[in-house]
Amino acid sequence: MAESDGNSAKRPTIYDLAEIAGTSPSAVSSILNGTWKKRRISEKLAKRVSRIAAEQGYAVNLQASLLRRERSRIIGMIVPKYDNRYFGAIAEQFEIMARARGLFPVITCTQRDPELEFEAARELISYQAECLIVTGATDADRIGEFCAAAGVRAINLDLPGRNAPSIVSDNFTGARDLASLILSRMKRDFGEITPLWFIGGRSQDHNTAERLRGFKAAHRQIGLPVPSDQIIMPGYSPHKAIAAMTTKTLADRSGLFVNSTITLEGVIHWLNEQRPGPDDIRLGCFDWDPFAALLPQNVGMTEQNVSAMLETTFELVETPPAENVRIEVPCILREIGGPATAR
Question: Which of 114, 154, 182, 245 has the most other CB atoms within 10 Å of its CB?
Answer without folding.
Answer: 154
